[in-house]
Amino acid sequence: MGEYKNRYKANIAGESYTIIGNETKEHMDVVTEIANRQLEEIKRLSSVNLEQAAVLLAINAISDQVTKQEQLLVYDRLIEEYKIKLEKVDEQKKEINFLRRKLKRLELLETDLLDDNQKEVDPVEVQKIKNQQALEKIQESHLSEAKEEAETLEEKG
């Protein structure tokens, strides 16, 4: 317990307490104010004594803490899902850039072939070029879908 550095005097439900911890005075002022407000609310809404109200307040606080921890776990899972999706998007971007470079080379090859004595283009080469163009469109479609899915997950988070 030697790691705690701050001593804080709190007045909770008319009783004086010394709280030792790492939090600032401002933080503890807020905590004390909320505790007093919630204790009064519990006592006002039910016929319990101060000790029972304090137990109910502790149960509420622990319940809130568990809920927040569950939310953090959900957010952590979403973050991991986003990371995976972003990695996929990056891979798809690299693939698209590769395909664009390849397409550019094929277009240059096609131009060279056409310019070479105005010879006819080999139908196989034409088909290869068309296949590359179709592949690029498919890759761009996948990238678009991945972006939309990432945005949908982000909106849900």
Short overview:
With 157 residues, the chain is mostly helical. Helix content is 77%, strand content 9%.
How would you describe this structure to a colleague?
The protein has helices spanning 25-45, 50-115, 123-156; strands at 6-12, 15-21. By secondary structure, the chain is mainly α. The chain contains three helices and two strands. The protein has a domain at 76-156. Strands 1-2 form a two-stranded antiparallel sheet. The longest helix is centred in the middle third of the chain and has 66 residues, at 50-115. Helix content is 77%, strand content 9%. Residues 75-156 form a coiled coil.
Strand order within the widest beta sheet: 1-2
Judged by helices, strands and strand pairing, the structural class is mainly alpha
- Quaternary: single chain
Total strands? 2
| Model regions low in confidence, pLDDT < 50 over at least 5 residues | none
Succession of helices and strands: EEHHH
How confident overall, as mean pLDDT?
Answer: 88
The radius of gyration over CA amounts to: 33 Å
What share of residues are in beta strands? 5-15%
Spatial shape:
rod-shaped
| Terminal residue distance | 38 Å
Sheet with the most strands? 2 strands, antiparallel
Q: Total helix count?
A: 3
| Helix percent band | over 70%
Keywords: Cell cycle, Cell division, Coiled coil
Organism: Vagococcus humatus
Protein name: Cell division protein ZapA
Coiled coil: 75-156
